Amino acid sequence: MIKSTFLNLNREKKDMILAAARKELERTPVHNAKIANIIKDAGIPRGSFYQYFDTLNDVFMAVLIDIETGKQNDFAGFLDSCRGDLFNASIKMFISELSYFPIKPGIISLETC
To answer: What is the CATH code for 4-98?
Structure first.
């Protein structure tokens, strides 16, 4: 479970912990991930980790929630920039998602609206 102590942290500290967890996920598959690596990169004591999360899976769930929240915010911004045009906002979101994959610069553009 993601504990309220984590949810109540300031944004900077949350981001530091989430960045350390993301780094660990990029380094190794989930089943090989280590709390020790996360707390070292985040600069927090092991006890603090357990004040924020019950298990290693909980911190990874927090990462997924953070990513999803960011995507929701991105889509809201696209919808606003497209003046409520759901179709064009969806196209912008799709193109934005493609940016996570290596594509030669200039092949696609976010200028759909």
So the answer is: 1.10.357.10
